[in-house]
Design brief:
The chain is an alpha/beta fold. It is built from 10 helices and 11 strands. Helix 9 packs across helix 10.
Length: about 375
C-alpha cells in the first residue's frame, strides 16, 4: 500500500526507527537460556544434534548473546561452545498413568533447569527456550515495547512474550490459565520472578484424580490424564498464588464461573501472545503435526489485552462466561454424538455406565522414574 500523506509517512518512519533502536538495545544486552534435555552428541549426524543447531542459530542471529545451557548432571555437554553450563540435580518425573509408561510429566525438571539458568544470566533481557527449538530471525524484539496495561494483575515490569502454541483459549477448550512455556522472552528479572516457584508435589499433582473418578468435561482425549494441572497451568497458578491470587482450580479442566474472567485478565495483562513464526522461532517438528484450534491468536490477544487494559463491562463478563460454558456443552454433545454414530447406542450406554461407575486401572502412585522427556 502506497501512503502519500507526508505526515503519515513521517509517523511510519519514526515508528520504524523506534523499532530498530529497541532491537539494537535488546540484542546487545540479552542472555539465552537453553533449558532441559541436551539433544545430540558428537559424532551423530548434524540433523540429530538439535541443541547444537539451537546454539548455532543463536550465534548467527545474536552473536553477542550470553548463551547458557542448564541441563542435568551426567549430560554430554563438553562439546557445546557456550558461555555457561549449569548441571542441575535431576528432580525426577512421574508418568501420567500406568497406561502410559513412557509418557512423563517433566515439569519439575523444567522449573529447576529454567530457574537456575535464569539466575546465572547477567543481561537485562533473557530468552528461555528448549534445546530442540531454533531461531530463524529476531522479530521477537518488535513485541518488547511498552503497551497499555491495567493495574489489576500487573505482576511484571513488562509483559513477557510467548508463542500461541499451547496458550489455550477457554472459549474453545476447558482449560484456564494455560500460557505457553516453550519459548519466553522479556526482562530477565521478570522471567526469574515467574520461575521462582516451588516444585509441584508428586505424585499428587500428576496423579491427583483418583483412578475410580472421572472428569465430566475432560479437555484432553485419551482417558489417561489424572493430573491436577497441566505444566503450564501449574506454573501460572503457583506464580499467581505467590502474588496473593488463588484461582482455586480443582483439576486441569475445572472452569468455575467465579474465576473465568480474572484468569484471562491475568494472562492478557502479563503476556504478549504471538505466533512462533512471527516471533522468529522454529518449534520442534512434532508440534506442527496437528493443527491446534484451541489457542489464542495474536489478534485475539491484541483485542482482549486492550479491552482489559481499559476495564471491562459486566456485559462482557457474562458473555465470556456464557461462551466458555456453551463451548463445553457443545464439545460434550459432539463427543456423545460421535461415539453413538461410530459405535452405536448400546456401546455408548455401556461406556457411559463405566464412566459413571469409574473403571479403576492399575496405577502405582509411588512411581518415580528416570529422565526420558524433553523438558
Amino acid at each position: 500500500m502506497i501512503i502519500d500523506d507526508p505526515a503519515q509517512q513521517e509517523k511510519l518512519k519514526q515508528a520504524e526507527l523506534k523499532k530498530q533502536v529497541l532491537k539494537k538495545e535488546v540484542l546487545g544486552d540479552i542472555s539465552v537460556v537453553i533449558q532441559g534435555k541436551a539433544f545430540g552428541i558428537p559424532g551423530e549426524p548434524y540433523a540429530q544434534q538439535l541443541t547444537q543447531q539451537c546454539i548455532d542459530s543463536i550465534r548467527k542471529l545474536i552473536p553477542q548473546a550470553e548463551i547458557i545451557i542448564s541441563t542435568w548432571k551426567g549430560s554430554v555437554v563438553d562439546h557445546f561452545a557456550v558461555d555457561k553450563v549449569i548441571l542441575n540435580d535431576d528432580p525426577g518425573a512421574v508418568t501420567y498413568s500406568d497406561l502410559t509408561p513412557g509418557f512423563y510429566n517433566n515439569n519439575n525438571r523444567q522449573i529447576v533447569s529454567t530457574y537456575n539458568g535464569l539466575k546465572a544470566a547477567t543481561k537485562k533481557y533473557a530468552i528461555k527456550m528448549r534445546g530442540d527449538c531454533k531461531l530463524m530471525d529476531t522479530d521477537f524484539t518488535d513485541h518488547l515495547k511498552e503497551s497499555p496495561r491495567s493495574e489489576k494483575f500487573k505482576f511484571f515490569k513488562q509483559r513477557i512474550v510467548i508463542p500461541t502454541k499451547y496458550s489455550r483459549n477457554p472459549r474453545r477448550i476447558a482449560q484456564l490459565i494455560h500460557p505457553s512455556d516453550i519459548f519466553q522472552v522479556g526482562l530477565r528479572e521478570d522471567l526469574v520472578n515467574l520461575w521462582d516457584i516451588p516444585l509441584q508435589p508428586e505424585p499428587e499433582t500428576t496423579r491427583a484424580i483418583p483412578a475410580n473418578k472421572n472428569i465430566f468435561n475432560n479437555a484432553l482425549t485419551g482417558g489417561f490424564h489424572r493430573m491436577k494441572f497441566g505444566a503450564e497451568q501449574y506454573n501460572w497458578y503457583t506464580y499467581c498464588k505467590k502474588q496473593g491470587v488463588d484461582f482455586e482450580l480443582k483439576h486441569y479442566s475445572h472452569i468455575p464461573a467465579s474465576v473465568i474472567v480474572d484468569s484471562e485478565w491475568s494472562l492478557m495483562n502479563n503476556f504478549i501472545i504471538e505466533d512462533a513464526y512471527s516471533l522468529g522461532v522454529i518449534l520442534p517438528k512434532r508440534m506442527y503435526i496437528s493443527v491446534d484450534k484451541n489457542l489464542y491468536t495474536h489478534n485475539e490477544w491484541f483485542k482482549l489485552s486492550r479491552k482489559y487494559s481499559r476495564g471491562i463491562s459486566l456485559a462482557f463478563k457474562w458473555q465470556f462466561i456464557f461462551e466458555v460454558y456453551l463451548s463445553n456443552v457443545s464439545r460434550i454433545a459432539w463427543r456423545i454424538g460421535h461415539r453413538i454414530s461410530k459405535y452405536g447406542v448400546k456401546d455408548f450406554l455401556k461406556t457411559f455406565n463405566k464412566y459413571i461407575a469409574g473403571v479403576k486401572p492399575n496405577i502405582n502412585l509411588n512411581e518415580k522414574r528416570i529422565y526420558t522427556g524433553s523438558r
